[in-house]
Design goal:
The chain has 144 residues and is an all-alpha fold. The protein has one domain. Helix content is 78%, strand content 0%. The protein has helices spanning 4-28, 35-55, 63-87, 93-107, 117-143. Helix 1 (4-28) runs parallel beside helix 5 (117-143) and helix 4 (93-107) runs antiparallel to helix 5 (117-143). The chain crosses the membrane at residues 6-27, 39-58, 115-134. Keywords: Membrane, Transmembrane, Transmembrane helix.
Length: 144
């Protein structure tokens, strides 16, 4: 019989592996090979956090907590939307913003998200950031 700690480590490994696999799939998806769809993808990620904050609301006694979580997530969403907009003009912004969102998932996102979300979404974000940064660097080296 395995210990609960080993089970949790295996589950977290699978969560991160699943996120990384989806990140690879998204990075190679033919419809995500131009700046606009990539910026739209980055802009969509914070919407999940707003949804989680709304879903965490369980009654009027928690209205202050809901307001705090929503305000926190809406401010973060606005920041990532600005980064998505800026990524249309400067390609280097996109990988940096995705990396920042991956760190945000693990460190700053509200507790309203499911326990596995930070590992999963963080893995998607960081995988996309690394692959798209490598792709942009490779193009720059080939063009220059």
């Amino acid at each position: 019989m395995t210990s609960p700690v080993i089970n949790l480590l295996v589950i977290n490994f699978l969560v991160i592996l699943s996120g990384a696999a989806i990140g690879v799939w998204l990075a190679r998806h033919p419809r995500l090979q131009s700046p606009l769809p990539r910026a739209a993808l980055l802009a969509s990620f914070p919407l999940y956090h707003v949804l989680f904050a709304l879903l965490a609301f369980h009654g009027t006694s928690e209205i202050t907590r809901l307001q705090q979580d929503l305000l926190h997530e809406l401010v973060a969403m606005a920041g990532f939307w600005l980064l998505a907009w800026e990524s249309l003009r400067h390609r280097a912004v996109l990988p940096a913003a995705l990396l920042a969102h991956g760190l945000y998932d693990g460190l700053l996102a509200s507790a309203a998200a499911p326990w596995w979300w930070a590992g999963f979404c963080g893995a998607v974000d960081i995988t996309l950031a690394l692959l798209w940064w490598a792709q942009a660097t490779r193009r720059h080296l080939l063009d220059g």
